[in-house]
């Protein structure tokens, strides 16, 4: 796996040492809404997932990279999912774990690195993401990188007893 290096952060492949970090993220109920998680994950299940993380994106149709700062501190995750090589597209998801690390440009730099990687190395034509109508930070992040809202899915997410709308954003490589 190529290490994708930016000015302040880099993206790297998952390692067995990421078990505790991923366990903490996957079991953080405050982000279950954006991850569509409904139940906690055991360390055993996450360990099995990490053991399979080396598999090729063309085989498993997803790629999860760790966002690290220059001090090698793990900040978050950025994902490609529903990778569709035939149609040359993939979904994108991103999370900076700690609120204190958000709004500092780490997510923006990670997204730029991933976009460049997708369009130059994976030869993708488009990327897409799904963002809750209430998630202004993510809306701003994706629109800053030229993603365009192409639709609003009404009552798409059911969370804590109510329905929420979700935008579909696309970035097409012209």
UniProtKB/TrEMBL annotation:
It comes from the Bacteria. Gene3D superfamilies: 3.40.630.30. PROSITE patterns: GNAT (PS51186). It holds the Pfam family Acetyltransf_3. Residues 9-174 form the N-acetyltransferase domain. One of its GO terms (molecular function) is acyltransferase activity, transferring groups other than amino-acyl groups. This is GNAT family N-acetyltransferase.
């Amino acid at each position: 796996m190529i290490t994708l290096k930016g000015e302040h952060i880099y993206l790297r492949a998952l390692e067995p040492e990421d078990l505790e970090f991923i366990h903490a993220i996957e079991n953080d109920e405050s982000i279950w809404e954006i991850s569509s998680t409904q139940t906690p994950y055991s360390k055993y299940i996450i360990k099995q997932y990490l053991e399979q993380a080396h598999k090729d994106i063309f085989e498993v149709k997803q790629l999860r990279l760790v966002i690290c700062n220059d001090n090698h501190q793990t900040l978050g995750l950025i994902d490609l999912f529903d990778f569709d090589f035939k149609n040359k597209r993939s979904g994108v998801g991103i999370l900076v774990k700690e609120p204190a690390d958000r709004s500092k440009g780490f997510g923006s730099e990670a997204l730029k690195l991933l976009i460049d990687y997708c369009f130059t190395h994976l030869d993708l034509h488009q990327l897409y993401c799904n963002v809750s109508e209430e998630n202004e930070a993510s809306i701003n992040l994706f629109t800053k990188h030229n993603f365009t809202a192409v639709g609003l899915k009404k009552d798409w997410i059911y969370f804590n007893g109510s329905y929420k709308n979700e935008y579909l954003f696309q970035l097409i490589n012209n």
